[in-house]
Specification:
The chain contains 4 helices and 6 strands. By secondary structure, it is an alpha/beta fold. α1 packs parallel to α2 and α3 packs across α4.
Length: 165
């Protein structure tokens, strides 16, 4: 069975409070509109998954919660190392995923997420916009086997994309 990884960049965050730590920034108005819109778009395409993993940063976790709400999922696994992660760190997270999960959604941050997507599938994505999604498929039996260049880009979608997946 192939593995599938959906990378989702958190929705647009609020920069209005300069006193707030980066980790604690909430979603802004546009983010609160785009996250459920993208969850709806994914749901309407019949996309199914086995596991949700998110950065614990407020904006990423809130984005994940919009998806969980749409899918009526109660559990989101948080992994601290996703916050401010680079490609190597994100690969470690993916390599440690439970093999019982065939399809995983990972909610994270740029620039790490864009770099990671490109590394996995030798892609040419300039930037994953906020609330953007990249689905990568792997013809592998185990998440431990995922490495640079082992994936195939299935789709790349984002709020302002008129083509949709």
């Amino acid at each position: 069975m192939a593995k599938r990884l959906l990378l989702v960049r958190h929705a647009k965050s609020d920069w209005g409070n300069a006193e707030l730590a980066d980790f604690d920034r909430p979603l802004n108005k546009r983010g609160k509109e785009n996250a459920p819109e993208m969850a709806e778009r994914l749901f309407n395409k019949g996309f199914k998954f086995d596991l949700m993993v998110s950065s614990p940063a407020k904006r990423a976790l809130k984005t994940a919660k919009y998806f969980a709400e749409k899918y009526n999922i109660k559990e989101i696994q948080t992994t601290e190392s996703i916050y401010e992660a680079d490609t190597t760190t994100l690969l470690r997270v993916v390599n440690s995923l439970n093999d019982e999960a065939e399809t995983v959604i990972l909610f994270g941050h740029n620039s790490g997420l864009t770099d990671f997507a490109n590394a996995l599938c030798n892609g040419d994505i300039y930037n994953i916009p906020t609330a953007g999604m990249v689905l990568i498929s792997f013809h592998l039996e185990s998440w431990k086997m995922v490495s640079k260049g082992t994936g195939e880009l299935v789709f790349f979608d984002y709020p302002k994309n008129s083509d949709e997946m």
